[in-house]
Amino acid sequence: MSQELGPGDLASLRLFADTVRLGSLSAAARAQRITQPSASEALRRLERRLGIELVVRTPRGSRPTPDGARLAEHAERVLAELDGFLAEARSLRAAGRRHVRIAASYTNAEYLLPPVIARYRAVRPEVVVSLAVANSAAVIGRVTERTADLGFVEDPEPHPDLATRTVATDELVVVVAPGHPWTRARAPLPAAELTGTPLLLREPDSGTRATYERAARRAGRTVATPLGVMTSTEALKTAVRAGLGATLVSRLAVAAELVAGELVEVPVAGLDLRRELRAVWRPAHAHDLTAEFLATLRS
């Protein structure tokens, strides 16, 4: 089977990435504004073109096959680059308008930045704000390579070539489905049991994964090989709700599910899962719009 993809396969590639990210083909179809039968056919056509089964469909949703999970990471990067290309082209077409190019990790993009962008646009409507979403390592790469003016990350590692500022604090929480054995414990889960248990985790370059692994190292623990790896928080939450296992995600990302009782938080003893959400930029190439946007975060 040929592995050549044509221009008509771009929509199918985005559908595949959305299916993995959202954990559901029907949710991906809604995001693409197409019917579920059309989405199913498009995904099958992409699988035939590649000669690889990408997604396993179940009554509870859709999850990537091992090959699909690997390809989903590549698809996310390809689509992020394409979105960045298109955003740049739009900004160049907008004669006389100024542009702030932002790259942000999923937690920052989904839970921190939307109200900030809205406040900024309210006072600077003539400025174009583009937002590219990727994991923390990819965001650092965009800022370093000057394809983003400002980045927002959650990874704990220092970046000596970049200026940085803490913009918010966050913590990871362990969540499981109602009825999971951990929900019946009378005491917090020991760090040794958590780190020794295969969990559903984000990919290695994500800030969430890096925060967990760093916290484990500081506690003298080694993290078990993951039960599964997914490239988005939404996919992790869907998998946990389906009873596939436990995961660690930002408290910001599960606030609604915890209140609704769809997920249950498991307290953990002996592991510091707090972290900082940070802005990063290149000092030598900062401009007035970068400073203005950062000021909006403090307002």
UniProtKB/TrEMBL annotation:
CDD domains: PBP2_CysL_like
Name recorded for this polypeptide: LysR family transcriptional regulator
Keyword Aminoacyl-tRNA synthetase (UniProt): no
Gene3D superfamilies, alphabetized: Periplasmic binding protein-like II, Winged helix-like DNA-binding domain superfamily/Winged helix DNA-binding domain
HTH lysR-type domain: residues covered: 9-65
GO MF annotations, alphabetized: DNA-binding transcription factor activity; transcription cis-regulatory region binding
Keywords, sorted A to Z: DNA-binding, Transcription, Transcription regulation
InterPro entries, per the entry: LysR_HTH_N, LysR_subst-bd, WH-like_DNA-bd_sf, WH_DNA-bd_sf
Family statement: Belongs to the LysR transcriptional regulatory family.
Keyword Ubl conjugation: no
